């Protein structure tokens, strides 16, 4: 192992690691897309007429949210093929999409819920009074008002998931962290490649978080100012909660 | 599939790693709280230098991924500083503590700023010093507001402790992986038991977070 940081190694490792960037970004999009879709499944299940099912679903969500995604990933990758009857062997990439996607879908489901809860009660009553079918009510009245204000929060989760995706290197998905580790194993120099990975993450996630802050300001001025005002009265703790229930491992 | 005697066989194996998981959780949580307080208060400071240094720390640790920081520190600490920290335990604790310290610092800053301006003005009107104002007026209210978030992040720290198995620490997941590699057909049960163990660890924090949510709204003048 080299005794300290060497720039030659740094520039030699750079092109090698950049080869994994496409996969990391692609996996982030795949996980995020899956989580966006699966979030609706949670919303659907939580609005079930039966109280015991709602209770059960709430605890399943809590379970997924408060156990490590790494273990969930290992479960899907190593254990799922061994489950009698329903087990199938999956590609590492698919496992990562399922594992990280389902883990974060529970957070995204909560965001959808906060959006749906903030739709004015009058809108629900009006759509009932106008005899809208359930599908029409959701498609034309509720969701178009509930989802757009949550876009900045969803954007934050996109960045969070981007930082979570290197977990997939543990099951052999060849993203930038995987490339850095294999470069390290080949040349016995880990510090430089890992520094590159850190810099890549910083360069991509910091500007995106600034973009999302700008988007938030833009959306705030666009959507129903009364609702925003109402929210900002409760703001301090609530908005903190929404932002912070975020993260990661 | 659910086989009680198999669980009884698995559980003591996994529990050998419980000590490491708990000690990493406790130590990294303490580091995270302390660092968060220092960095969060620095972010509200008027001193340009202190404020910016804390800002850079927060953005760097929030902007990169924890698993990358963990591996980086694992290789960098012995190399850059020429010291062996003695064990991987310290590497894991420092990485997790500094990462969540950065996230919690934003919570600390947000809560301090969320205390109503009138409280600051009243404290100034009562001729309190800066220090008295912070200690007696702002912080007691800010800390209450932080409670639910601190609970949430403690669950996140608990989840993050599973990563130390990747740098060779013998935690719950490490023993689980060993059992999986010796007997693959056991894998589903092993991982279900691991997940349940982590969930049991999380339960008190879930409960505290809910309590904190109620408590945080009492006796606080927020904007």
Explain what you see:
The complex is a heterodimer of chains A (249) and B (223). Chain A is an all-alpha fold and 249 residues long. Chain A has one domain (7-244): MetI-like fold (Orthogonal Bundle). Chain A is 76% helix and 0% strand. Chain A is built from eleven helices and no strands. Chain A has helices spanning 7-18, 21-46, 51-65, 69-79, 92-117, 121-129, 134-146, 151-164, 176-187, 191-222, 225-244. In chain A, helix 2 packs across helix 5 (92-117) and helix 9 runs antiparallel to helix 10. Chain A is flat, with a radius of gyration of 21 Å. The two termini of chain A are 29 Å apart. In chain A, 36% of the residues are buried. Helices cover 79% and strands 0% of the residues of chain B. Chain B contains nine helices and no strands. Chain B is mostly helical. Chain B has one domain: Orthogonal Bundle (MetI-like fold). The longest helix of chain B is centred in the middle third of the chain and has 31 residues, at 130-160. Chain B has helices spanning 4-15, 18-43, 48-63, 66-80, 88-114, 117-125, 130-160, 172-182, 187-215. The chains are: A mainly alpha (249), B mainly alpha (223). The interface between A and B is large, with 56 and 60 residues.
């Amino acid at each position: 192992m080299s005794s300290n940081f060497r720039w030659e190694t740094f520039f030699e490792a750079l092109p090698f690691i950049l080869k994994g960037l496409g996969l990391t970004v692609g996996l982030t999009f795949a996980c995020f897309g899956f989580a966006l879709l699966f979030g609706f499944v949670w919303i659907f299940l939580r609005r079930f007429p039966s109280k015991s099912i709602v209770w059960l679903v709430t605890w399943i969500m809590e379970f997924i949210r408060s156990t490590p995604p790494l273990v969930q990933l290992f479960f899907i990758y190593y254990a799922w093929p061994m489950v009698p009857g329903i087990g199938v062997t999956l590609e590492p990439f698919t496992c990562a999409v399922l594992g990280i996607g389902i883990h974060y879908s529970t957070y995204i489901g909560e965001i959808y819920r906060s959006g749906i809860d903030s739709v004015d009660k009058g809108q629900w009553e009006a759509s009932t009074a106008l005899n809208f079918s359930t599908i029409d009510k959701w498609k034309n009245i509720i969701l178009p008002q509930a989802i757009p204000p949550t876009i900045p929060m969803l954007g934050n989760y996109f960045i969070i998931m981007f930082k979570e995706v290197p977990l997939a290197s543990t099951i052999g998905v060849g993203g930038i962290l995987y490339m850095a580790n294999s470069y390290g194993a080949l040349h016995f120099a880990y510090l430089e490649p890992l520094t590159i990975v850190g810099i890549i993450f910083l360069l991509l996630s910091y500007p995106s978080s600034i973009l999302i802050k700008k988007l938030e300001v833009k959306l705030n001025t666009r959507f129903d100012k009364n609702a925003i005002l109402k929210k900002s009265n409760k703001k301090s703790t609530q908005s903190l909660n929404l932002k912070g229930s975020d993260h990661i491992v | 599939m659910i086989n009680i005697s198999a669980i009884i066989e698995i559980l003591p194996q996994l529990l050998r790693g419980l000590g490491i998981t708990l000690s990493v959780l406790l130590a990294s949580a303490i580091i995270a709280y302390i660092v968060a307080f220092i960095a969060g208060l620095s972010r509200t400071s008027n001193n340009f230098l202190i404020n910016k240094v804390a800002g850079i720390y927060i953005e760097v640790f929030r902007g990169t991924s924890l698993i990358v920081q963990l591996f980086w520190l694992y290789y960098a600490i012995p190399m850059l500083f020429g010291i062996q920290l003695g064990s991987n335990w310290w590497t894991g604790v420092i990485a997790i503590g500094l990462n969540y310290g950065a996230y919690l610092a934003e919570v600390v800053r947000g809560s301090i700023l969320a205390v109503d301006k009138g409280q600051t003005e009243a404290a100034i009107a009562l001729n309190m010093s800066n220090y008295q104002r912070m200690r007696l007026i702002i912080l007691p209210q800010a800390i209450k507001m932080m409670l639910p978030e601190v609970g949430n992040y403690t669950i996140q720290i608990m989840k993050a402790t599973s990563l130390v198995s990747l740098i060779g620490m013998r935690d719950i997941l490490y023993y689980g992986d060993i059992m999986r590699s010796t007997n693959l057909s056991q894998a589903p049960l092993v991982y279900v038991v691991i997940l349940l163990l982590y969930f049991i660890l999380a339960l008190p924090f879930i409960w505290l977070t809910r309590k904190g949510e109620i408590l945080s709204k009492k006796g606080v003048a927020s904007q």
